[in-house]
Amino acid sequence: xxxxxxxxxxIFSGKRKSGKDYVTDxxxxxxGAEVCCILRLSGPLKEQYAKEHGLDYSxxxxxxxxxxxxxxxxxxxxxxxxEQDPGFFxxxxxxxxxxxxxxxxxxxxxxxLQWFWREFPQHCRCVRVEASERTRLQRGWTFTPGIDDxxxxxxxxxxxxxxxxxxxxxxxxxxxxxxxxxxxxAKEKSGDNMDQRTVTVNG
Length: 203
Hints:
Elements: E1 2-4, E2 8-14, H1 20-31, E3 36-39, H2 42-53, H3 57-61, H4 65-84, H5 88-94, E4 101-104, H6 110-119, E5 124-130, H7 133-138, H8 151-154, E6 164-167, H9 172-190, E7 198-200
Parallel strand pairs: 2-4, 2-5, 3-4, 5-6
Antiparallel strand pairs: 1-7
Helix pairs in contact: 1-9
């Protein structure tokens, strides 16, 4: 499989309602869509799950009751797919990426990180988004057994040396200050020589 070789891959993880999407959307806006793309591993997972189960893919992408109804089963289905092929969803997620900076907005398992580290060993940086339990509750989170204690939520709680840990408790001034170094690196990398950016991904 051929894709365009990135100059920087920012791999984000964090708990539900920590605000990962808000942070990654903000970074893309600052860098510009021509420089930075957001790649969601959950996108191809939901697409394949919908196809195999005859469900509405667009509804699974939303944040409503439809997705929540299927979430636990979808997680288990995804785990079985990963056991068969750890890079299955990663390859699908990057297949159309062309920008020099990639944001993986929803890494959840060590196998996700290991796949990107193996395929792009010089380009990956790991970013953790954190929010207090109080903030997450205010954003609508409630603890759900089988989801919040599953690997999909806890798989990266330990054993990862994060390059950045971003606190996202609702203060935009604090958030912007924390993003300065990350944005500077992305701008530096995307300004590098962008020739010879085609790579074949086998894993």
